[in-house]
Fold this sequence. Notes:
globular; alpha/beta; 6 helices; seven-stranded mixed sheet; 2-enoyl-CoA Hydratase, Chain A, domain 1; 26% strand
Amino acid sequence: MDNSIILKGSIDSNMLFDFREKLSSINSIITVIIHSTGGDLDCAFSIYDLIKECKENVTTIILGKCCSAALVLFLAGNIRKMYKNSFVLIHEPFVTFPDDKPFTLSDIVYEYERLYWRKEKLLNLIQESTNISKEEITKKFFSAPNTILTAEDCIKYSLATNII
């Protein structure tokens, strides 16, 4: 796979800019291989935008795990494949507060608004990729702290298009 880009590990600004650099050197059909525990959801949305900007079809492949924000990367593919023993872990977006920093009510309101915005963006993205309603996505995928989906589950819910 000469035109493949591997996205592994935590999603952060380093992954975002490394991906952008690698993507700029490929001028044909691209395969993005994902093995990630997730990370920064805002960086994941930026990588999603870069993938969607490609003129050629992009195939995304899960090799192992695709957790949390990594689902955004996977859903960017025109063709979404996963290996039989791979899995997806989905949960609602969350925010963590440092233990040693005091927060005002304004800080908390700001974080709430950003968290709500991220959740809506994620719901829209999943809905566009699967045609499942936001209500059903919330009920099926966000009702537990973490929802694990097998490759077969991902086909059932149209998250994946093929099992390898």
